[in-house]
């Protein structure tokens, strides 16, 4: 391992650049902050390419484990200053450990629907906080994976990864275009259930024939007419108060647990 103290160090600049989608796309890497998140990745077989830590974390046994995994995989372990951690994280009170990991996407052709009772597909989700929370919820409920359809926000953005609370390493992610998803969905062995404001069936009474695939639209428009034609059944979550809609991550969580109950 080596120590870096300069804010202009090329590695520091490269890690900080991972806040930009352009740099994440070009490198295939992403940033995970905090010893808990980094440890989660290591325990699930994801070795960091770069592991940065502050002096206060140097003696932590979990850091030593992460450092060993990084070195075994040919990665770099670097001790840095508090100022560098703040610059890399773009936070005044940064985490003491930061890891840079490879992004992982699973092709639709490699998905085994029967590996889990419930799966989630999201069409054009825009908010990284919502996406990260959905990934975390999918992990908590034991879903098989999350499929991103069309132009979605980046699940490996710093904001989305933070919202997953480490579940980004546990939940397989896939991405595809609308036409590819529509063709692939035809072979789904269970039920495909979407949500639609104009639906007449309640989410609570739907037939979630396992494995169930939950299809959710984006925050503003919901499912487009083309996507709404793909489910076996579209349902709605009843609104009993003054609010006429739910946050996407909340609605998806309700649907996931309805399908897995």
UniProtKB/TrEMBL annotation:
Keyword Methyltransferase annotated: yes
One GO CC term, this protein: cytoplasm
Protein's GO biological process: methylation; RNA processing
GO terms of molecular function: RNA binding; RNA methyltransferase activity
Any Pfam family the entry gives: SpoU_methylase
InterPro entries the record matches: Alpha/beta_knot_MTases, MRM3-like_sub_bind, Ribosomal_eL30-like_sf, rRNA_Methyltransferase, SpoU_MeTrfase, SpoU_subst-bd, tRNA_m1G_MTases_N
SMART domains: SpoU_sub_bind (SM00967)
Keywords on record: Methyltransferase, Transferase
Family listed: Belongs to the class IV-like SAM-binding methyltransferase superfamily. RNA methyltransferase TrmH family.
Protein name, entry field: rRNA methylase protein
Upper taxonomic lineage: Bacteria, Pseudomonadati, Pseudomonadota, Alphaproteobacteria, Caulobacterales
